[in-house]
Amino acid sequence: MSYDADPHSSDLPDAALSRLTPHSISSMSDFEKELAYFRIPLRDLKTATNDFAEENLLKQGKSSDVYQGKLQLVIGRDVVIRKFSSTHPRIHDFNLWIKAISRFNHKKFVCFIGFCDEEGEKMIVMEHVVNGSLHMHLSTLNCLQRLEVCFDVAVALKDWIEVNGDRSDWYGIGFKIMLDKDWKAKFLVSFEPDKERPDWYLLGKMFLEVLYGRKVTNEDVIQVKQGYDIIDPYLKKEMLRDSLSLFRDVITICFEKPEDFENFGIIPRLTEAHENQWIRQNPVSNFISNQLLL
């Protein structure tokens, strides 16, 4: 598994520790020491966003606002800052959120940079993901990209569950799927109160969206279970029949909510579907590779 549960792996440990005195460290609980590695001063976030200027506001919501900024603590890194309202229905879980995401450093998750809890403000800082959410690009991704997205998401969800367990409430944590500069999928931990918690049913629903090239409804899910075919015409034309069949198998498995998904081969099926599709779209490269092995 490619995660690192060491909180010292943050991008900010040296900067955070430099603001702590020996006395303050000795008086901290283990939990407070763990969080100290990720604490970012309010003044630094104000500088990063030009005092939370309107031109840096990406999204305004009932329970939080989202800003973009450039954080000098990490060499001018582009970041996204979620600034929570005191009326957020799960704001009492703020420390639990930090604890959960700070312990999970995974290449398929949007990187957690740090947090701020000063002067009544509560904020979480994440890396900025260049290409935004998956939903913005559902209709434009090619076959290989769609299969890669599904594979990345399945691996990330598997690893998250193995580390954090299949908790009933997830501390109010939900997820969004983002696409980085290389069009690779990354999980973004979301703290919006209306987000559904991640599970294999929702994974199947996301796979349907990739297959159809649009957002799907619960009615779409019912139609699929009844055998209706509403696949994106582009995919039906471009994707190998074997790859498409494997993809459909994966969706069916997700909707059956397996207790141990590894026994049902979700990830191996996605891997095989991607390899088959890659060979079809890269025949010359595949021929050269085979010749080198002779």
UniProtKB/TrEMBL annotation:
InterPro entries: ANXUR1/2-like (IPR045272), Kinase-like_dom_sf (IPR011009), Ser-Thr/Tyr_kinase_cat_dom (IPR001245)
Pfam families: PK_Tyr_Ser-Thr
Domain of life according to the entry: Eukaryota
Any single GO CC term annotated in Swiss-Prot or TrEMBL for this entry: plasma membrane
Segments crossing the lipid bilayer: none
Residue ranges constituting the Serine-threonine/tyrosine-protein kinase catalytic domain according to the UniProt record: 56-157
Gene Ontology MF term list: transmembrane receptor protein tyrosine kinase activity
Gene3D superfamilies linked to this entry: Phosphorylase Kinase, domain 1
PANTHER family, A to Z: OS07G0166700 PROTEIN, VASCULAR ENDOTHELIAL GROWTH FACTOR RECEPTOR 2 (VEGFR2)-RELATED
Name of protein: Serine-threonine/tyrosine-protein kinase catalytic domain-containing protein
Annotated organism of origin: Mikania micrantha
